[in-house]
Amino acid sequence: MHGYLEAKDEQAKQEKQQLAHDMVLDEIQNTRDLLKLWENSKVDFIPVSTMGETMLIYGLNLGELLKKKIELMTGRENDEPFIDPNFMWQMPAGFPVPKDVYLKY
Q1: Which of 87, 96, 104, 105 sits in a 20 to 30 Å window from 60, CA-based?
Q2: What's this model's pTM, rounded to 2 decimal places?
Q3: How far is it, in rounded angstroms, from Cα 79 to Cα 82?
Q4: pLDDT digits over 38-50, tens only?
């Protein structure tokens, strides 16, 4: 994505967009493969929590999450690459640490 955004000419942009296109299709296929494994494997191959998912571990809803990921990514392979420059710095209302202080860490 960064390569596309930083490209100086149309040929470079097209090359980077093709890479992004291929990456999206690969990710969809990888997710389909993982979902198939999740649904059909008789072997426990990934740790999951019976108490629900957290930021660090999946819950028993892993299959549903994989299906949702496939749904959200399907048809997006031709989208123009974009990165929200403010994504990491959007704090919830009332966050007690000022942005300039938080960014020092």
Answers
A1: 87
A2: 0.76
A3: 9
A4: 999 999 999 999 9
Q: Domain map of the chain by residue range?
A: 2-84
* Dihedral, CA of residue 39, residue 52, residue 87 and residue 15, to nearest 10: -10
All residues at 6 or more sequence positions from 34 whose CB lies less than 8 Å from its CB, including other chains: 66
Contact yes or no for 48/62 (Cβ under 8 A): yes
Residue pLDDT, tens place only, 16-69? 999 999 999 999 999 999 999 999 999 999 999 999 888 889 999 999 999 999
